[in-house]
Design brief:
mainly alpha; globular
Length: 239
């Protein structure tokens, strides 16, 4: 097979191939997490964080049972909403309210009845990511910061894959407004990006999901499989 001439690649193709084979772009290339003597989050004073964590823990503790009742979940959502109202820059509360809303919605998150709730859920995850993200991809971050980011990115990635399923089933109308015009491929690519980032922040399962949902990895895999089939076919025919 003839070697690929780099001069024949478009600028976009060259960028894609560079990303595919750049070790720094791999989901396993973790960011720099700096151990800290006490938990820390951006926008929250160190002296205030323990109190906020205690309020947050009290709100979500009743959810840590196999099947919490609707009243218990509703109460957790209300307490986290109050916490967010009083401290709108506390990233962790948004991530946990999203988890509680997800629990309240059940498996069928994307239904006509759940549009308002799924809209808030996705907005919470985006807000948690915005608040907890470091100023640059190379900036160090605390373990708590990395945990919030890995959880929020992974959760959003999962919801984007669920949205892709809804689109493939012709149920775009049940999606939040920000998603219903997206194609299935676009949603999968968005999910892959979230899993990629969750993996970089330490989520090993998300690392695997990033590879499985990466459209360029799939394309390269298909090309390799096709080449192997042709090679096997040729070797058999040449006998």
């Amino acid at each position: 097979m003839a070697a690929l001439d780099a001069r024949s690649l478009s600028a976009n193709d060259a960028h894609v191939l560079s990303a595919l084979f750049d070790p720094e772009s791999s989901p396993s290339a973790a960011v720099k997490i700096v151990p800290t003597s006490a938990p820390s989050l951006p926008h929250i004073p160190a002296s205030e964080l323990p109190r906020l964590q205690a309020l947050e823990a009290a709100a979500i503790r009743p959810l840590n049972v196999p099947s919490p009742s609707k009243d218990v979940v509703d109460d957790a959502v209300d307490q986290l909403s109050d916490l967010i109202k009083q401290h709108p820059n506390y990233a962790s509360a948004y991530a946990n309210r999203a988890q509680a809303l997800r629990l309240r919605s059940g498996e069928d998150i994307y239904t006509d009845e759940n549009v308002a709730e799924s809209t808030v859920l996705l907005a919470d995850l985006s807000r948690a990511i915005t608040l907890a993200s470091p100023p640059t991809p190379q900036s160090p971050l605390s373990p708590l910061q990395a945990k919030v980011l890995s959880t929020a990115h992974s959760h959003r990635g999962y919801l984007l894959l669920k949205a892709q399923t809804a689109v493939m089933a012709g149920k775009q109308g049940s999606l939040p407004a920000e998603l219903w015009k997206k194609t299935g491929d676009e949603l999968e690519e968005m999910a892959s990006r979230d899993f990629f980032l969750a993996g970089r922040y330490g989520d090993r399962t998300a690392q695997q999901m990033a590879v499985k949902t990466n459209p360029y990895a799939k394309m390269c895999g298909a090309i390799v499989k096709g080449a192997l089939r042709e090679e096997i076919k040729g070797s058999v025919g040449g006998r």
